[in-house]
């Protein structure tokens, strides 16, 4: 609702009240209408101050209402009514003014912000555009280039930047409310015409067309098929070239187009599922609601390699003191240097004072971990080494200390078996670079206790990461689903495709990088090492094993051959591509002739592989594994799988995540295609459709949020 009160000085104060962020729900909009009308009609009132309860102006539209039929007064005429008021309306921006909240403030005649406030037109992050006049008023207020940046990125703008750009009129360190009331008194009675943004003309640079074209090119590259940022540019073009009323019409048309697109639905789904991941539960009845996390006052990281460094930085950035442990002096010194310079960069970037960082001490002595609450092991991916460390930690650390492993796929329970307190062993699977990537898979072994899960999930929150609870199996959720996807890519090369063809299809779908470019970036030796460990190649491979078959199933030795010939990716200047200039991938004629030789050696008839086949075989095999994961209870819900893929694997947000995408495509179609590819390639095991997929199709393909009820909880591995 919106509360109305009259205060001395002939000022009406209207306070938006809808916790937690005063979203513009139907009731709030109705109340704004009523109270503004009341204030404008009241002879005693000379000026109006519009603010939000609990130190927050307004977080924007109420997203929950998007899926229902629109009720109550729409935003556009409401904001127009405020702008048309003859009495000055001053917005008090405390906390946040995002989306519809900023659009509401732009309809006011003045804006006064607290120095800690943030503003932004965030709609693009939900697959929409600011359609309550935001795309028309902001360019008129601050000019086309700055508005274009804010509208197309949805970024949060600090109060300091907002005043510099002219979005707000004044910023204060003291009470924005008091400042606004005093200010309102000084402008009461003045004509408001010049303050109405709808009457302004947007300041345009002379080269408007090339500015907008340039923006479109950059946006198409960055947003990889997302419609909303492109529509935002079109709306800003309308603001720059059309009268306000026509611009508003264009804004509405573009919004209608986006609103009914699957992309907006997918992005809103991502918004809700990301929040839902924090509300974890296990079949035993433990959950985020009934399990208390242990406090983490001091943490330790073992191993300062690629991952350990980033994990140490994340912990310190969250204000947690860290002890970092290495094996030898040289590595310790290198680790310390790298961590310190990462922290300096981080604190500069985020404007963090050193006092806010947790201290980091560096040691070779594991005994220093006597008092730590939580240890994260990030040594080489080697079971024997990890077990040795967990056994040592058991004798060194306090009995209640949580022992976490950053393994990317080893059996958590086997690692836990080496510890004296297996119930306090949990997987904390960070993603590289660990101080940047948002995802944290919290891996639960069969003996992991609820308190260990709760503490790891609480840690994720403190590190500003998205924690998702998953079960224990080889590769957990994310890496396990990557395997069939990667294998399909190898098979496609065997059959006639080229790496650049496969990558192009995947990048056009929306991945930041195709799978071959990803492998070249992370190093082909990563997978090679694990295949050697599994005995699929290298010295452990039984003599006489057929080159293209393992355990009676199809196997592609292509990546092994590349590694054996020293092609490890970017780091060796060649992998699936050639890197003559650092990091620039170019197709390699050598690879082309190597593939031709390979095919003729194994009698494979090369054929032209179509784009649809590339996309379907790669994505549907990944999705099929997702269904198996659901069936086995390794993930609690399809939503959790989608959060993992969107926040950790570069799955395009506007496609919702693999399970949501499968539902959007149509489960019968996915099933049909998998059956078709399985018939044509019976030797590829993971193309056989999972029974979970069949079951869902048989039940009429219910929407994703209903799948959870169909998953047999008794088989849950969580
Ligand atoms: P890395 O090879 O870069 O670093 C491992 C570090 O551990 C080295 O600095 C080594 O000196 C140190 N170390 C080895 N034995 C030690 C001991 N006994 N005591 C203290 N330090 C010791 O490895 P990484 O890439 O950082 O991977 C670490 C773990 O994280 C692995 O389990 C890996 O599977 C997992 N992981 C890696 C990635 C990735 O992209 N690199 C992503 C997710 C998870």
Outline the secondary-structure elements.
Blueprint (H helix, E strand, L loop, with lengths): L1 E6 L3 E6 L9 H16 L5 E6 L22 H10 L4 E5 L2 E3 L1 H8 L2 E5 L3 E3 L13 H9 L1 H10 L3 E2 H7 L4 E3 L3 H12 L20 H16 L4 H14 L2 H16 L2 H15 L22 E4 L3 H12 L4 E4 L3 H22 L9 E4 L10 E4 L5 H14 L5 E4 L6 H6 L7 E6 L8 E6 L5 H13 L3 E6 L6 H18 L3 H11 L5 H8 L1 H10 L15 E2 L2 E2 L3 H7 L24 H13 L9 H21 L6 H11 L9 H8 L1 H14 L10 H8 L8 H4 L8
Parallel strand pairs: 2-3, 3-4, 4-6, 5-7, 6-9, 10-11, 10-13, 11-12, 13-14, 14-15, 16-17
Antiparallel strand pairs: 1-2, 7-8, 15-16, 18-19
Nicotinamide-adenine-dinucleotide binds next to helix 12 and helix 14.
Subunit structure: Monomer.
Pfam families: 3HCDH (PF00725), 3HCDH_N (PF02737), ECH_1 (PF00378)
Catalytic activity: (2S,3S)-3-hydroxy-2-methylbutanoyl-CoA = (2E)-2-methylbut-2-enoyl-CoA + H2O; (3E)-hexenoyl-CoA = (2E)-hexenoyl-CoA; a (3E)-enoyl-CoA = a 4-saturated (2E)-enoyl-CoA; (3E)-decenoyl-CoA = (2E)-decenoyl-CoA
Q: Could you explain how this protein is built, in words?
A:
The chain is α/β, with parallel strands linked by helices and 718 residues long. It has four domains: 258 residues, 2-enoyl-CoA Hydratase, Chain A, domain 1 (Alpha-Beta Complex), CATH 3.90.226.10; 178 residues, 3-Layer(aba) Sandwich (Rossmann fold); 113 residues, N-(1-d-carboxylethyl)-l-norvaline Dehydrogenase, domain 2 (Orthogonal Bundle); 101 residues, N-(1-d-carboxylethyl)-l-norvaline Dehydrogenase, domain 2 (Orthogonal Bundle), CATH 1.10.1040. 46% of the residues lie in helices and 11% in strands. It is built from 28 helices and 19 strands. The strands form four sheets. Strands 12-11-10-13-14-15-16-17 form an eight-stranded mixed beta sheet, sandwiched between helices. The protein has a six-stranded mixed beta sheet with strand order 1-2-3-4-6-9, sandwiched between helices. Strands 5-7-8 form a three-stranded mixed beta sheet. Helix 13 links the parallel strand 11 and strand 12. Helix 5 runs antiparallel to helix 9 and helix 23 packs across helix 26. The longest helix has 22 residues. The mean pLDDT is 94. The structure holds nicotinamide-adenine-dinucleotide. In the N-terminal section; belongs to the enoyl-CoA hydratase/isomerase family. In the C-terminal section; belongs to the 3-hydroxyacyl-CoA dehydrogenase family. Its main location: other. This is Peroxisomal bifunctional enzyme.
């Amino acid at each position: 609702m919106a509360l109305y009160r009259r205060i001395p000085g002939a000022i009406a104060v209207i306070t938006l009240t809808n916790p937690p962020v005063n979203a513009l729900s139907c009731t709030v909009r109705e109340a704004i209408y009523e109270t503004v009308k009341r204030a404008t009609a009241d002879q005693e009132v000379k000026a109006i101050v519009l603010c939000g309860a609990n130190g927050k102006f307004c977080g924007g539209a109420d997203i929950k209402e998007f899926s229902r039929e629109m009720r109550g007064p729409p935003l556009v005429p409401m904001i127009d009514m405020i702008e048309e008021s003859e009495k000055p309306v001053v917005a008090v921006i405390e906390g946040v003014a995002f989306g519809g909240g900023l659009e509401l403030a732009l309809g006011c005649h003045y804006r006064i912000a607290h120095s800690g406030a943030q503003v932004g037109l965030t709609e693009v992050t939900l697959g929409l555009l600011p359609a309550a006049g935001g795309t028309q008023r902001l360019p008129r207020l601050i000019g086309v280039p700055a508005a274009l940046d804010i509208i197309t990125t949805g970024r949060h703008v600090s109060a300091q930047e907002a005043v510099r750009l002219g979005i707000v009129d004044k910023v204060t360190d003291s009470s924005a409310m008091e400042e606004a009331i005093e200010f309102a008194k000084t402008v009461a009675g003045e004509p408001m015409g010049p303050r109405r943004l709808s009457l302004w003309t947007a300041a345009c640079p002379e080269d408007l067309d090339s500015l907008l074209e340039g923006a479109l090119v950059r946006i198409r590259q960055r947003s990889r098929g997302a419609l909303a940022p492109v529509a935002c540019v079109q709306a800003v073009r309308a603001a720059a070239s059309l009268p306000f009323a026509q611009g508003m019409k264009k804004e509405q048309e573009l919004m209608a187009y986006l609103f009914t697109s699957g992309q907006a639905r997918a992005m809103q789904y991502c918004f809700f599922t990301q929040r839902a991941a924090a509300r974890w539960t296990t079949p035993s009845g433990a959950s985020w609601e009934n399990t208390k996390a242990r406090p983490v006052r001091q943490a330790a990281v073992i191993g300062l390699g690629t991952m350990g460094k980033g994990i140490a930085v994340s912990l310190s950035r969250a204000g947690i003191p860290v002890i970092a442990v290495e094996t030898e002096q040289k590595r310790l010194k290198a680790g310390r240097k790298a961590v310190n310079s990462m922290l300096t960069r981080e604190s500069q970037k985020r404007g963090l004072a050193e006092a806010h960082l947790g201290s980091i001490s560096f040691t070779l002595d594991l005994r220093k971990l006597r008092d730590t609450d939580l240890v994260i092991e990030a040594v080489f991916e080697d079971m024997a080494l990890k077990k040795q460390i967990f056994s040592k930690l058991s004798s060194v650390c306090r009995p209640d200390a949580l022992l976490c492993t950053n393994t990317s796929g080893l059996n958590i329970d086997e690692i836990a078996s080496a510890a004296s307190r297996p119930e306090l062993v949990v997987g904390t699977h960070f993603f590289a670079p660990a101080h940047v990537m948002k995802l944290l898979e919290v891996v639960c072994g069969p003996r992991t206790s609820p308190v260990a899960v709760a503490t790891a999930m609480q840690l994720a929150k403190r590190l500003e990461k998205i924690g998702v609870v998953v079960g224990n199996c080889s590769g957990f959720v994310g890496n396990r689903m990557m395997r069939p996807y990667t294998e399909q890519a190898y098979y496609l090369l065997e059959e006639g495709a080229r790496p650049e063809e496969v990558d192009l299809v995947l990048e056009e779908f929306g991945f930041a990088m195709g799978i071959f470019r990803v492998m070249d970036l992370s190093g082909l030796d990563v997978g090679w090492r694990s295949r050697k460990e599994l005995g699929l190649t290298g010295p452990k491979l039984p003599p006489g094993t057929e080159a293209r078959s393992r355990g009676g199933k199809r196997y592609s030795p292509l990546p092994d051959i590349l590694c054996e010939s020293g092609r490890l990716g970017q780091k060796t200047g060649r992998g699936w591509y050639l890197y003559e200039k650092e990091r620039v991938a170019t197709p390699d004629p050598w690879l082309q002739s190597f593939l031709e030789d390979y095919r003729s050696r194994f009698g494979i008839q090369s054929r032209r592989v179509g784009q649809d086949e590339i996309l379907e075989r790669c994505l549907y095999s990944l999705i099929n594994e997702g269904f198996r994961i659901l069936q086995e209870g390794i993930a609690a819900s399809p939503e959790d799988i989608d959060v993992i893929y969107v926040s950790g694997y570069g799955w395009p947000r506007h496609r919702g995540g693999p399970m949501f995408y499968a539902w959007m495509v149509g489960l019968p179609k996915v099933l049909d295609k998998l059956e078709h590819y399985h018939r044509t390639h019976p030797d590829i095991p993971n193309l056989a459709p999972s029974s979970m997929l069949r079951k869902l199709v048989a039940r009429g393909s219910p929407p994703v949020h209903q799948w959870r009820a169909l998953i047999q909880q008794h088989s849950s591995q969580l």
